[in-house]
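sry for the spam today, last one i promise. struct tokens for design, 890 residues
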């Protein structure tokens, strides 16, 4: 079969589409062959059959053409790429083999169809350019990302070590990488990695392609200079890939925005996961995440912007206050908020609509939606123009800044109703606009004189036919004579068999059916011509008018894009205000000093998911006189993890400009937030969990600054108890002495609570429980002081561990406590550790053995030593240490 012309056509298409599965249109089906068929059978659950059941059967699988979108979305969801090869001529008219062409290549990062996209999530295609085989984590890497469905396009140069965090922030659906480069697997965990040839990342080709795309002679106007080579290489690789896979124009990627890392709050990839910011740890779904809990946006524009805000919160007090002012204003003014949100409900996804207009894929209905959105704007502008933040709303005034007119009226000013275009769209398009542009029915009467004439002619012709039927019936005396229509003959006269005799001689017979005869007349055909062509011509004219109207929308891209951005912002601010009112949030006071004062804080997700009123609020005081390191001990299930995450999430919310779930809050801006859940809480990641935990901990210790917020949950749990305690102990000391950052450390190692006595900035907190008749009641209340027990055995009983195991565990516990606790009831390890530290500030819990040189030094009699002998001794000691002297001793 491979020899047939059609299979040759298949082979050619297969070569052209690379690794993608080829969906080959054959009549009413899309068929897959060979390995593609096997993959599709597995992934899509299709039945595997075979073509050519002779000696070399070819595996084949397929599905009906109208199910294309649903199968495509399944393939994409499974991380596969697919190419669609269509029949591009009518098989009935084809001479010989039907012509076929690749019409689209679909991959997770290049989706544009609404049916395949989540309206509330951005869908980015990223590219990373790395020097081949670069191991230097400080080397400059290039990162670019683009969203085909909106036309946004960014690029940045950054140290290779930051790639994973930036990719986690962007969350691309697909990432392009040169075939000779390597990325750490964690960098592309939820991303499909697409290998591209190395030349696709060539700087010269990239620069030329970008200049051509943006029709400029240099990229300096966009803020890219000589040092930005890697960023441009990555951007070039994106263009190259799009040009290869997209059969439609990508002209809407009309500028490249330089992204400067480091302006936003830094949240690394592990922290994003631990805090479940946009997806949950266990299932990876949006539901249950912080984003899902706080999202009250009404438009896809707003939903996507909120996700962006939460992915990169702000670090400048003034910028945060500006947003907070707007949220406060909208929260305080219920009627303004309600009116704004009422309008937003009727706003369409202007950003994606515009992208479809630019790429020539917009439907008449899309244009109507642009029109309806524009029609909402004058009222919305009016609503926002006069608004002023009420008294007590402005925080920037409190913190010393001069309040401007505020974000809300500024957004109002930015909304551009494009009155001429709006009027044109309103007068042009019918209310219920069709999805296709070729079938007519798009324009209102009165919009185009020519169109009206053609439509009249078409309608008038039909009227003429009715009259003609009446006239002929009277003339022939055949009362039931009918004029009818079919595709083969067009209009014809039909006379039943019983009346056949009365047929006039000038009727021309065309067809005989069981009950009747069908005729035509020259007169009938003449009018038919007029009617039918008028109809056709009207449709053609409508299509032309549609293209012109689409172009008129395209002309206003810049104004419409700015308006879309303003609408998105308004939606997010109003949504945050709505959330604040609905959940009783409070405006945080934002300060630059590294402090934190939270009164009655709540966990933003549990606050919503727990039955109303059952979540126990807790205070948090950290920084300054409150100390910097909070050690939280307490029984299992008490709420330690919840508490420390809550503190991080409240800080994060405050820094996006949101009100926070608390009665009062003062938040010192953090430059970085680090959060880690212990190895025991996260098991499914392939690598040794303890190794992962330590790698991540190392990063925190090496990068946390005095302005950072660090949240550590049971660090050190993944190894033996003594190793674990030792590490946890040393980590707390380090964070306290060196980093000096706000730290919340939840732990089961009660030994650590002794650190509060030797380190001035360490405070012990525990979660209160009530013991009552051998029962433990969890109060979930954070109180000062160290916990005395873990109640692990109690929790095991709650979980249904057999009673005998429980009893035995109690016995063993008693025995262990006897062996390991000192007479004062404290762990012997802790007591020793503390003593060591007091004696020598440099020592950690378990000091390394001393070098013999130290002892020699200790025993030296300095009084009896001449300067010469001292020098000689020094040189001997140095020789013993085996140290190599620096080239130029100081
Ligand atoms: N402040 C609170 N108010 C109400 N319920 C809470 C509160 N904090 C925690 N809980 C409930 O207690 C459960 C256990 O909380 P969490 O996981 O924080 O405990 P933990 O102390 O970290 O336990 P473990 O030591 O086993 O890790 C939560 O799932 C939640 O249902
Ligand atoms: Mg916990």
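last one done:
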């Amino acid at each position: 079969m491979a020899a047939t012309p059609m299979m040759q056509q298949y082979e050619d298409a297969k070569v052209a589409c690379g690794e993608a599965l080829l969906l080959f249109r054959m009549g009413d089906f899309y068929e897959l062959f060979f390995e593609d068929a096997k993959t599709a059978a597995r992934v899509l659950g299709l039945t595997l059959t075979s073509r050519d059941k002779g000696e070399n059967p070819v595996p084949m699988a397929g599905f009906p053409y109208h199910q294309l979108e649903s199968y495509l979305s399944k393939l994409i969801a499974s991380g596969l790429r697919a190419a669609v090869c269509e029949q591009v001529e009518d098989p009935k008219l084809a001479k010989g083999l039907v012509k076929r062409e690749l019409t689209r290549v679909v991959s997770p990062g290049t989706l544009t169809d609404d049916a395949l996209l989540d309206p509330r999530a951005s869908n980015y295609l990223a590219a990373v350019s790395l020097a081949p085989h670069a191991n230097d984590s400080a080397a400059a890497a290039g990162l670019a990302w683009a969203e085909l469905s909106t036309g946004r396009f960014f690029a940045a140069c950054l140290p290779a070590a930051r790639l994973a965090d930036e990719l986690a922030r962007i969350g691309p659906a697909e990432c392009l990488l040169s075939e000779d480069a390597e990325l750490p697997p964690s960098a592309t965990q939820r991303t499909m990695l697409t290998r591209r040839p190395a030349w696709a990342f060539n700087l010269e080709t990239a620069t030329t392609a970008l200049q051509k795309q943006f029709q400029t002679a240099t990229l300096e106007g966009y803020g890219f200079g000589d040092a930005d080579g890697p960023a441009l290489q990555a951007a070039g690789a994106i263009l190259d890939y799009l040009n290869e896979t997209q059969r439609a124009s990508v002209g809407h990627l009309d500028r490249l925005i330089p992204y400067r890392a480091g302006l936003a709050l830094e949240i690394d990839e592990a922290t994003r996961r631990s805090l479940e910011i946009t997806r949950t740890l266990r299932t990876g779904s949006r539901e249950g995440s912080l984003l899902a809990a706080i999202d009250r946006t009404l438009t896809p524009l707003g939903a996507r912007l909120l996700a962006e805000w939460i992915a990169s919160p702000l670090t400048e007090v003034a910028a945060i206050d500006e947003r907070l002012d707007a949220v406060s204003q909208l929260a305080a003014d219920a009627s303004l908020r309600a009116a704004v949100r009422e309008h937003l409900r009727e706003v369409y996804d202007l950003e994606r609509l515009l992208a479809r207009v630019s790429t020539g894929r917009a439907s008449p209905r899309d244009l109507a939606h642009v029109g309806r959105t524009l029609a909402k704007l004058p009222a919305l502008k009016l609503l926002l123009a006069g608004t002023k933040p009420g008294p007590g709303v402005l925080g920037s005034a409190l913190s010393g800044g001069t309040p401007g007119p505020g974000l809300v009226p500024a957004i109002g000013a930015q909304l551009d109703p494009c009155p001429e275009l709006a009027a044109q769209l309103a007068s042009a398009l019918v209310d219920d606009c069709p999805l296709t542009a070729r079938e007519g029915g798009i324009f209102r009467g009165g919009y185009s004189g020519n169109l009206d004439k053609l439509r009249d002619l078409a309608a008038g012709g039909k009227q003429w036919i009715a009259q003609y039927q009446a006239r002929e019936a009277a003339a022939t005396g055949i009362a039931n004579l009918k004029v009818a229509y079919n595709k083969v003959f067009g209009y014809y006269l039909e006379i039943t068999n019983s009346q056949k005799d009365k047929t006039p001689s000038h009727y021309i017979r065309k067809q005989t059916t069981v009950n009747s005869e069908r005729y035509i007349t020259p007169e009938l055909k003449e009018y038919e011509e007029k009617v039918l062509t008028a109809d056709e011509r009207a449709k053609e004219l409508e299509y032309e008018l549609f293209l012109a109207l689409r172009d008129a929308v395209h002309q206003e891209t810049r104004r419409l894009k700015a308006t879309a951005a303003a609408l998105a912002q308004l939606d997010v601010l109003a949504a945050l205000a709505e959330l604040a009112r609905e959940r009783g949030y409070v405006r945080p006071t934002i300060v630059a000093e590294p402090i934190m004062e939270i009164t009655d804080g709540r966990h933003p997700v549990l606050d919503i998911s727990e039955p109303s009123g059952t979540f126990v609020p807790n205070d948090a005081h950290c920084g300054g006189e409150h100390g910097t390191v909070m050690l939280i001990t307490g029984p299992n299930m008490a709420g330690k993890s919840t508490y420390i995450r809550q503190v991080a999430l409240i800080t994060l919310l405050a820094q996006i400009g949101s009100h926070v779930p608390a009665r009062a809050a003062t938040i010192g801006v953090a430059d970085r937030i680090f959060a880690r859940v212990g190895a025991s809480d996260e098991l499914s990641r392939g690598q040794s969990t303890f190794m992962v935990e330590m790698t991540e901990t190392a990063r925190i210790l090496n990068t946390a600054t005095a302005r950072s917020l660090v949240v550590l949950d049971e660090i050190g749990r993944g190894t033996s108890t003594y190793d674990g305690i030792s590490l946890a102990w040393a980590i707390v000391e380090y964070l306290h002495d060196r980093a000096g950052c706000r730290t919340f450390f939840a732990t089961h190692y009660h030994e650590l609570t002794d650190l509060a006595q030797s380190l001035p900035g360490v405070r012990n907190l525990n979660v209160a429980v009530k013991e009552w008749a051998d029962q433990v009641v969890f109060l979930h209340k954070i109180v000062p002081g160290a916990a005395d027990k873990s109640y692990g055995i109690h929790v095991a009983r709650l979980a249904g561990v057999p009673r005998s195991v429980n009893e035995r565990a109690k016995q063993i516990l008693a025995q262990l406590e006897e062996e390991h606790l000192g007479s004062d009831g404290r762990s012997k390890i802790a007591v020793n550790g503390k003593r060591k530290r007091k004696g020598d500030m440099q020592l950690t819990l378990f000091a390394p053995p001393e070098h013999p040189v130290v002892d020699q030094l200790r025993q030296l009699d300095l009084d009896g030593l001449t300067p010469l002998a001292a020098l000689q001794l020094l040189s001997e000691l140095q020789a013993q240490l085996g140290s190599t002297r620096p080239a130029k001793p100081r």
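The mean pLDDT is 87. ok im logging off now
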